[in-house]
Specification:
heterodimer, A: 13 helices, B: 492 residues, alpha/beta, six-stranded mixed beta sheet, 33% helix
């Protein structure tokens, strides 16, 4: 591949995001307003946080389909603890803890049982969703303190998202662990022979992905003002879409956390723009599907060019 | 009258002349052995004859008609079938389905019973007791080989080429295969049989052609030659002065291996490497040398026996442990097991010792970059676009030096180099040899696995020879002649 086209392939998502914003700002009056932009950030902060964790897993060449269910279970358990009178930090910690635990189980099943990640996390998606329904008897848990609702207010939600991405960047680009994630995804056998403890790396990325999902789950519950066992359904697909549209290779070893952030917002703003143009929901789904297909083809092309 | 004839076939790959003006003549009803060291050009030759490679020059004829070289399907339809070393069956399909794969009978609906009957007849004809309905994954390697041969026969082959079929077979299985080949010969087919094992040549072949360095050295009826003559033909090149002189001053033992075993890969391996010494580990492909290296490096489970590093007994549970103890292993398979092709050259150098470059857990480019640059300079890794260049875009020689730089970022006691000059050009080879000399002068011990005899003889202070999972013998530099090494490697 020639230099300019490689550059284009690597930075396509950022160019696309900027172009998208420009088009919407010029074509509509409603897009470039403070309230709409705040709305876009608030609506997409959760997906972005999920996608940050998903990035780690996909960089190792895996996938985590259980994150949507973890959103539901973590929200329900946090809400339940708070409704029973736990303090805010304890209530949040309960939710985060369960996400970490589910992620660790995913990681153990992938490394010790050697079951493919797709299957492990598909099974976990069902188990965790079932657990959320069973724990609540499919009811909504309400009566949460006002301090909990404050967590997902616009500015704070945006700040939490920014913190997650800053930490994810630090971890991936400035620690040995992050380099090991790329190495494991790029060539697991070489990674092991180079002295990287590949199983520990995998265990950690699934645990961190579970943690991110739980954080998103707590924020969703805060936003809804209730623990809702159905919360987060299909979020795993939004997260994978954001990561792939953001240019991370599903084959592992290649991608960036900023690409994921851009991918999440590209999809979010696409939805926003289609709404502003009054495009029907059904058509929106089809557009999203086409964007995902285009992004994945771009990845394929880039991988073969290397 | 010749059945298959190839005339002055030549083929070059970047940096290598794989085949140079090679002739081959196969008569009907003949088993023709193709013999040669690793890298002599056997595989290239049969890939050309099978249509998988297009020669740069030369032609091949079947019964006088030119073969459409470069078109595997057309060549196969004309009646030339190849059974490659890596079997090409689909494990989840049955024997019959595999035999008729790509030329199923019945359109639009398969005539399954007819194919099963035909498969049964073919398998019976080979004396193979295999049910046509058996899934291939449930068959032994020998049985799979027979299914491959049955597949070749189903296409009405006139010529069957077998690429080292015995490498994966036990002795009784080889005997059965030979019985099959004699049957084919009696039916007037031509068989090209590739093997390293000299005794097999005498057991089955009518004529033998020996390749060396991409040229045909000799063709002769097997009855007219003896073992010693074949070995002379195979290795009889003069050792050119491509190896820098060595002045070894071996010190204490750095690695002692006693009765190391990891069945079924290898069963009894013992040797010693001293400080400042290069020990060559020679043997045929499949003798278990790479497995020994991986076992020493903590990369294989189920290893028994005694290993001492600097006198202390060690047993590494993982490569990470081995690296920490001061060992290093450079793989024979850079692409699959060595390099991170997408990561930068610099990141490839530092990957094994990142924690020591990250005080407080945070990597600092200010520490990492100079460390990588210094190592790259020491081992003369040349990257046109600097160390930020993806490692996959470096030349083979620079990739190899990159892997050495990675290991030697921290001091090592012992290096295991697995085919250290495979796939790199002559200039880079000399550089690698220079590096090996420099490292041993600094007191490192090196165990060098090599399938290139000149390299083994030119660089080793001692040679340990393996044969079928055991150390078959040890030769001093003075004792190590091509013939002695080959004898130990082929006969144990």
């Amino acid at each position: 591949m020639t230099r300019p086209s490689r550059w284009l392939a690597n930075y396509a998502i950022f160019a696309a995001l900027i172009a998208e914003c420009l088009v919407l700002a010029l074509a509509t009056d409603a897009f470039f307003t403070e309230s709409n932009l705040a709305n876009v950030v608030r609506q997409n902060a959760f997906t972005a946080i999920l996608a940050a964790g998903m990035s780690l897993v996909i960089l190792t060449g895996g996938i985590d389909l259980s994150v949507g269910s973890v959103v539901g279970l973590a929200g329900v358990l946090s809400a339940d603890a708070l409704a029973r009178g736990a303090s805010l930090p304890v209530g949040v910690a309960v939710g985060l803890g369960v996400g970490l635990a589910v992620g660790a189980v995913n990681g153990l099943a992938v490394t010790k049982l050697r079951v493919p990640p797709f299957i492990v996390t598909l099974a976990m998606m069902l188990i965790v969703r079932g657990a959320a329904y069973k724990y609540t008897n499919a009811r909504t848990i309400s009566g949460l303190p006002a301090s909990f609702a404050a967590l997902s207010q616009g500015a704070l939600a945006a700040a939490i998202m920014a913190a997650v991405f800053a930490l994810a960047w630090l971890l991936l680009m400035r620690t040995p662990f992050g380099r090991h994630v790329y190495a494991t995804g790029g060539n697991p056998e070489a990674a092991w022979l180079a002295g990287i403890r590949v199983h520990r790396v995998l265990l950690a990325v699934y645990a961190l992905c579970g943690l991110c999902a739980a954080l998103a789950g707590v924020l969703v519950a805060s936003r809804l003002g209730a623990g809702y066992p159905k919360a987060g359904e299909f979020y795993e697909l939004d997260a994978v879409t954001a990561v792939v549209v953001g240019g991370t290779s599903l084959f592992g070893g290649r991608g960036s956390i900023w690409g994921t952030l851009a991918g999440a917002f590209f999809i979010g703003i696409l939805n926003n723009g289609l709404n502003l143009f009054h495009v029907e929901t059904y058509d929106q789904l089809m557009v999203k599907g086409l964007v995902l297909l285009a992004a994945a083809s771009l990845d394929r092309w880039r991988t073969e060019g290397a | 009258m010749s059945l298959l004839s190839a005339a002055s076939l030549s083929k070059s790959f970047p940096g290598v002349r794989a085949l140079e003006g090679v002739d081959l003549e196969l008569r009907p009803g003949e088993v023709h052995a193709l013999l040669g060291e690793n890298g002599a050009g056997k595989s290239t030759l049969i890939k050309i004859l099978g249509g998988a490679l297009v020669p740069d020059a030369g032609e091949a004829r079947l019964e006088g008609q030119p073969l459409p070289l470069g078109d595997p399907l057309a060549v196969r339809r004309r009646g030339v079938s190849i059974v490659y070393q890596e079997l090409t069956l689909v494990p989840e399909l049955t024997a019959a389905e595999n035999i008729f794969l790509g030329r199923e009978r019945g359109r639009p609906l398969l005539r399954r019973r007819e194919m099963a009957r035909a498969a049964q007849a073919l398998l019976d004809g080979l004396g193979a007791r295999i049910a046509p309905g058996a899934p291939v994954r449930a068959l032994s390697l020998a049985q799979q080989q027979l299914v491959e041969i049955a597949r070749a026969l189903a296409g009405e082959s006139k010529v069957i080429i077998l690429d080292e079929p015995s490498a994966t077979l036990s002795d009784p299985e080889v005997e059965r295969l030979f019985a099959v080949l004699r049957g084919l010969r009696a039916r007037g087919l031509g068989v090209v049989y590739i093997s390293h094992r000299l005794e097999e040549i005498f057991a089955i072949a009518d004529r033998v052609t020996v390749l060396r360095d991409g040229r045909r050295v000799a063709s002769s009826p097997v009855a007219d030659v003896d073992r010693a003559q074949l070995i002379r033909w195979m290795v009889g090149r003069d050792l050119r002065e491509e190896f820098p002189p060595r002045a070894p001053a071996p010190g204490d033992a750095v690695l002692e291996v006693r009765g190391l075993a990891c069945p079924p890969r290898f069963t009894d391996v013992s040797f010693t490497v001293r400080r400042g010494e290069i020990v060559g580990l020679a043997g045929l492909v499949g003798a278990g040398r790479t497995s020994v290296a991986l076992a020493l490096f903590g990369a294989l489970p189920g290893v028994r026996g005694e290993v001492r590093l600097d006198g202390r007994p060690v047993r590494f549970a993982s490569p990470a442990d081995a690296l920490r103890a001061g060992m290093g292993y450079v793989t024979e398979d850079r692409r699959r097991r060595g390099l991170f092709r997408v990561l930068s050259a610099g990141a490839n150098i530092t990957i094994s010792f990142l924690r020591s470059l990250a005080p407080l857990g945070i990597l600092s480019p200010g520490r990492e970059r100079p460390a990588a640059a210094a190592a790259a300079k020491e081992f003369d890794v040349r990257a046109a676009a600097g160390l930020a260049q993806p490692a996959g875009t470096l030349s083979g020689g620079n990739q190899q030096k990159l892997l050495l730089a990675r290991l030697l970022l921290r001091p090592r006691r012992l290096l295991v180099l697995d085919e250290p000059t495979r796939g790199i050009d002559v200039g880079a080879k000399a550089e690698i040899y220079g590096i090996m000399n420099r490292l041993t002068a600094q007191g490192l011990g090196i165990l060098m696995i090599s399938s290139e005899l000149p390299e083994v003889l030119g660089m080793s202070d001692r040679v340990v020879v393996m044969h079928e999972g055991r150390t078959a013998g040890e030769l001093s530099r003075a004792q190590a002649t091509p013939e002695r090494v080959m004898e130990l490697a082929t006969a144990g």
